[in-house]
Specification:
The structure is a single chain. By secondary structure, this protein is an alpha+beta fold. It is built from twelve helices and nine strands. It binds iron/sulfur cluster (SF4) (2 copies).
């Protein structure tokens, strides 16, 4: 086994663990005990809010993300900032080729992001701004169901749909299973395309699938996801436990109308949008 491969395995293992450690929840959303004690209340609030009841059924911690597009309209530079922060944190190679590009969070027009929504009556603003899209960390993820090696799995402590790069055999079943195009395949060695290597995150190899991990490695250090931090001043992306009635994300979901991407697929996305 060559040196690079050994290093990859070591960091990948550490990252997988880091992404599922308990402090994640404590630092960001209050203690699991609080979430658990308040679960009935959360359920009642969710039902009262109408529309998110199923998605927030109290099964412990379920991390989610809310993108308030009202704060991003007219500011494409903020979308780029969030993407660049993610790319930098995760050694995402810059490959200018549609077939081979690697994307964890990217911008796309409303019509592409929400293919089930009518655009004919959408506002001018909605139709003329790009939206940030990423893995939805679905509560019912088809990508997990079809993975033969369990390389992609739901972390029970956080609800994150995680990847163990080491277990990925590159069959791409998960890519076919994901209806959101949220996964990318490394058709070539990504290393030569990484502009500035972050030594704290593993660089992947050719033949491995990857996607947004909700910054599990940052959560384990008590930090927010890189995209959230990048647009912090605008307060445009909110991250936290959907099942914790005291979390900011839960409070916003309970009072604002939000939409999810293609919710009718039944995957129960954990990424919400205010449009
Ligand atoms: S968005 Fe796609 S990759 Fe992410 S959890 Fe849902 S099905 Fe899986
Ligand atoms: S949560 Fe982290 S990995 Fe996911 S898109 Fe945001 S920055 Fe990227």
């Amino acid at each position: 086994m060559d040196k690079q491969r050994r290093k990859f395995l070591k960091i990948a293992g550490a990252t997988a663990l880091a992404g599922i450690s308990a402090p994640v929840v404590v630092n960001l959303t209050g203690s699991p005990a609080v979430a658990s004690a308040a679960k009935n209340q959360a359920s009642a609030q969710a039902a009262a809010a109408g529309g998110h009841g199923d998605d927030t059924a109290p099964k412990g911690v379920k991390l989610g993300l809310l993108i308030d597009m009202r704060k991003l309209y007219g500011h494409p530079e903020l979308l780029d900032k969030a993407t660049q922060a993610c790319n930098k944190a995760h050694n995402i190679p810059k490959i200018d080729n549609k077939k081979s590009e690697i994307k964890w969070i990217w911008k796309t027009p409303f019509a592409n992001a929400f293919t089930d929504q009518s655009t004919s009556n959408a506002s001018y603003t909605t139709r003329n701004n790009d939206f940030l899209v990423l893995c939805n960390h679905c509560a019912e993820p088809p990508c997990v169901r079809v993975c033969p090696t369990k390389a992609t799995f739901v972390d029970k402590k956080t609800g994150i749909v995680a990847m163990d790069f080491h277990r990925c055999i590159g069959c791409r079943f998960c890519m076919m299973g994901c209806p959101y195009g949220a996964r990318s395949f490394n058709w070539m060695d990504p290393l030569p395309f990484i502009e500035e290597l972050n030594p704290d995150f593993p660089a992947r190899m050719r033949g491995v699938v990857e996607k947004c991990n909700f910054c599990g490695e940052r959560l384990a250090l008590g930090k927010e996801p890189a995209c959230v931090e990048a647009v912090k001043e605008a307060g445009a992306i909110i991250f936290g436990d959907l099942n914790d009635p005291n979390s900011e994300i839960r409070r916003i979901l309970d009072k604002e109308h939000t939409i999810q991407r293609q919710a009718a697929y039944g995957t129960k996305p954990s990424v919400f949008y205010i449009v």
